[in-house]
Amino acid sequence: MKRIFLIAALLVCALALPATAQDQSPTSSAPLPEMPKPIQELISQGAQVRYLGRDHGLDSWITVKGGQEQYFYVLPDKSAFVMGLLFDADGKLVTVQQVKRLQQQGDTLLDSLSEDTATEEQDPAKDPRFKSPSEQLFADIEGSNWVPLGELGAPVAYAFIDPQCPHCHEFIKELRASYLDKGKVQLRLVPVGFKDETRSQAAFLLATPNPSERWYKHMDGDPEALPAKSEISDQGVQRNLAVMQSWQFSVTPMIVYRGKDGTVKLVRGRPKDIEAFINDLGARS
């Protein structure tokens, strides 16, 4: 199963643009929209191109060259396009549904492309080659370096955080008293750092024997809680950054969790509705 990459800017579009009456499938009788020039150039280089339709107001294209697929989404005003995967406001992977829709029309070009489900013969629990993109994302984050907040056994969410990210602090403050401290959920922090100081702080958080205590003191304003010590190896933080960058995530917090329906969900930034997020996570009552 090939890895599919994401660009975080695409998630902004997915969450900001509602579906419209103009949404169309690739088999619609409406004429195809104008193809961006960079995609036309890929055709001249031998790429195969298909129109995936218009979902959430975005015209969508897939290109396949050298066995590698790329997905492109054109902004409604045609001023720019972004490359990556499209998630809806609930964190569900729209791109996979677009590919399936085209496959159902008998397009053999897409027979080998990633899907979000596996057959009984392609059990991802038994053979990691058959992980869907969302399951691969979840597996990558499970295998990252993280520290837990909350009780063992509670429903789990992962969050890439920068120690000095104010939005990360606000998100965790929303969870702390009502959910983390009461054992209703567990939040696993995946520390990263976008500058030398915060990478050192993240490395210290991973190395300290009491990470949750240190983190909460840091959030409460203790300047000594997460010192930026240059002698501490930041190899674990670099690993987390590599995971984050491999999926082209560029902001914190970036939250990944498995919803009650079993599907992998992604939230870019602080959840707009914390109660809806907690409910979807299946928090203990």
In words, what does this structure look like?
The protein has helices at 8-16, 37-44, 94-103, 133-142, 166-180, 196-207, 211-219, 235-246, 274-281, and strands at 48-55, 58-65, 68-74, 81-83, 147-150, 156-161, 186-191, 254-258, 264-268. With 285 residues, it is α+β, with helices and mostly antiparallel strands. Strands 5-7-6-8-9 form a 5-stranded mixed beta sheet, with helices on both faces. Helix 6 crosses helix 8. The two termini are 38 Å apart. The model is unreliable at 1-22 and 111-130 (pLDDT under 50).
Distance between the termini: 38 Å
CATH topology of the largest domain: Glutaredoxin
Q: Give the class-level CATH name of the largest domain.
A: Alpha Beta
From the spread of the alpha carbons, the general shape counts as: elongated
Q: pLDDT average, as an integer? A: 80
Helix content: 25-40%
CATH superfamily of the largest domain: Glutaredoxin
Which CATH architecture of the largest domain would you pick?
A: 3-Layer(aba) Sandwich
Number of distinct beta strands? 9
How would you sum up the major sheet?
Answer: 5 strands, mixed
DSSP helical segment count: 9
Approximate strand percentage: 15-25%
Main-sheet strand order equals 5-7-6-8-9
Following the backbone from N to C, one meets helices and strands in this order, namely HHEEEEHHEEHEHHHEEH
Radius of gyration: 21 Å
Compute the number of structural domains: 2
List segments where confidence is low: pLDDT < 50 over at least 5 consecutive residues: 1-22, 111-130
Structural class by helix and strand composition:
alpha+beta
